[in-house]
Amino acid sequence: MDFDFDYFVIGAGSGGVRSSRIAAGHGAKVGIAEEHRVGGTCVIRGCVPKKLLVIGAHFAEDLDDARRYGWTIEGKSFDWPTLRDNVLADVDRLNMAYQSTLDTHKVETFLARATLTGPNRVQVGDRDITARHVLVATGARPMVPDVPGAEHGITSNEIFHLDALPKRAIICGAGYIANEFAGILHELGVEVTLVVRSDTLLRGWDRALADRLLAISTEKGIQFRFNTVPTRIEKRADGTLAMHCANGKVLETDLLLWAIGRVPNSEGLGLEALGLELGANGAIPVDAASHTKLPWLHAVGDVTDRLQLTPIAIREGHALADGLFGGKDWVVDHACVPSAVFSHPPLASVGMTESEARQKLGNVKVFTSDFRPMKNVLAGRNERSLYRLVVDAATDRLVGAHMLGPDAPEILQALAVAVKAGLTKRQLDETVALHPTMAEELVLMR
Ligand code: NAP
Question: Which residues contact 166 (CB under 8 A, 6 or more apart)?
């Protein structure tokens, strides 16, 4: 049978764009559909604009600290529209860069919603298309809780477009997005309260690091309400919001941000009609090579809810295209994946936490460095960094690294190579320190 395309990709985010580009490079005729903007969550309303806001917000501390280094800064002020518009302009630039990558590789773009209408069949706008292989790379969207008035809150989709910064903000959640935006908004002068349903910040992360972030954030002035579950959001006549909570408390705010996880974008695509059973939260089940049980249908990235991280979606899309069109079969290793929370200060982690390692390996050694970075000492900023290394006692192999402190994500990327390569603690010890740096702590822990 002749098909219109060898490969049709639904969703032009990180996973979909990489996969279509690689497939086209292998000679496949490729089409891609996108209902919002080419670039996807990471580029348009996620990692990229968020990181730019993190950088922008951090100037608040840097400018304060500069005084102790002899600088006088007169008339310091902050203008949100300037930062917002410059960030959004950069998003536009990247959107065009992604589009031009697709064009250069002769991937035909359809700016419309696509649905699956039968085996090897896709409806895009008013066109009925056939394809030998179809990839679903539709990503995920922020979850909004099922409580009355939830629509008065916003999500990470909207936060980049605020007309003005609020005086007060409540952020519901205690994961990546909650802690990242708590830092951004606080640095920009907003009174921030995190509403956390349990007593745990950053579940799954190294406990000592999460406790340290809590202590530093509290010291900075971010407020935390633990064991607090919203039951109703009321919008008052003056525009303020009242969050009614299960413990009887009522919290008032000007802005409410839901940061309680992301759900796969799988509904309305026609998947169930094709006989695919979705996971509890709508995730598309796939094997290690990103194949569904239908031989022509595949899925990568957040819609499969394996690890909701851009570099993972990119690799999954790349491996899939190599396997389908390049005769190169390989699968993505979902173990030992580094990640970071871009809070103020940031956290970064790779491999097993101490408790995971104790469960899996039994006997582990943990090395800790708890120090005040040189820059903070002179600035009179009482913020200590915390680095923790987890080592398998039987083999001396480094199985986990967890860092909190300035530039922790930048430093951890290099250390992730050591963990992935299975280097031993002794090999770290044998490496000469680069003095004076924060990273030298990693080879000086005894
Ligand atoms: P997240 O990191 O999974 O955190 C979700 C938070 O919301 C948790 O604290 C969770 O509490 C809480 N929660 C879940 N359901 C809730 C409910 N119904 N009511 C109140 N609280 C609830 O999710 P996220 O911050 O929204 O980010 C989504 C995903 O995007 C992340 O998992 C990550 O993979 C990705 N992401 C990555 C980065 C990065 O790499 N820097 C940045 C942003 C997002 P419990 O702990 O009790 O479950």
Answer: 190, 253, 254, 255
